[in-house]
Amino acid sequence: MGITIRRELYVKAQDKNMCEWRSQKYVNGEGLKRVEIRSLEGESDWSSGLFERYSDDNGRTWSQWKDIYSQGYEKKGEDEISTNYGCETYNPQYKHFVSLMMNRIFLGGHTQAYKRFWEKGEAGFIDHCFLSVRNDKSQNSSVKLIKYEEGADYDPDNWLNPEYITRNRAYFGCNIDILNNGEIIFPIGANVKACCRILSLNINDIFPSCPDIMCGMIVVRGIFNQSSGNYDFIFSKPVVISDLKSSRGIDEPAAISLPSGRIIAVFRGSNVECKDWNTRIEPGTPSHKWYCWSDDGGKTFTDPVPWHFDNREVFYSPASISNFIKSISNGKIYWIGNITGYNAYGGHPRYPLVIAEVNERGLLKKETLTIIDTRQEGESKEVQLSNFSILQDRETGLIELYLTKIGQHEGYTWWADCYRYFIDVNK
Asked: Rounded to two decimals, what is the model's pTM?
């Protein structure tokens, strides 16, 4: 049997100007207690409300919502700071959870910071990544800045310290892979200028267009340090891509270790042309997901090339997020993301959303390609079937995917329903 999909409407849009994102995860290493996160969004990349609720019976019944917005938002003078919580993964070797966090400082507030980013190609906001370790059945965490170069740690009383804001800048990756020996692997989108500096490359030869706001990639191996309660890091040689191939550099990378020991990393590229970013990409350049691999344990990676199926067919994909998941039902590795026709440009179209199995070399098995969802009749061409969250049901082994259909209704970006998909990859 192949992969089967069941879809249901999970949360209907409350109004035409504010959508709700939903995600769920298990609270403990074992058992069925879940937490659901509810985020309100009425503008791009900015949450105006954050809540959580708990279920002791695997999502059948829930507690009341609790407002947790203050845990992820802080205002400091004219600046704003948001803390974004990424994937959280259980490490059974040490009986703790590991998760990636990102601290984003908006210089002069988020409205002006995003305007500077999109309209001037300036670093209006500053990102740093942290690794958080939380012992099972505990609320306390050990948090560590991911420092791939010399620089200062974060100081809440001196948040604009030049040795902090100009060093170790990074966007967090999409996943953390737990290895059989208890070590972890995860990617970060490190500032492309820093990557070129580490590689002894001239940034003007690689990414002269808008290097202050774009990223390369570093894959991190973490080895748990019992005395510190966190991980010691080993960093790969950075990976960069020319702005002639991807005008937005390396974005939202995901990495996973295959049974052979090979590590593959897949990331979002872009073929968008933007005068404000001084892009050099040629009109008509195809849009891909890019990938590279390591056969030396993650020390070095190949140069990125367009990802493709196991039959050598190259596919097209917009500038959208994607991720890997290792099935608890059959142990196989799957990739979820957008695969489109040749006409993908920039971030569109973001449909259909698909799932496919990854083979032993890190390529997608074409015969397993399955559509999770696509644009439905009456939906806008701008609908986004991306920015999903995933969980595996411990009782059934089903993959649950939560997705809010941004752009669903013509002319109303944030009028969007949230859907839940049950994905059965079979045993």
From this structure: 0.97
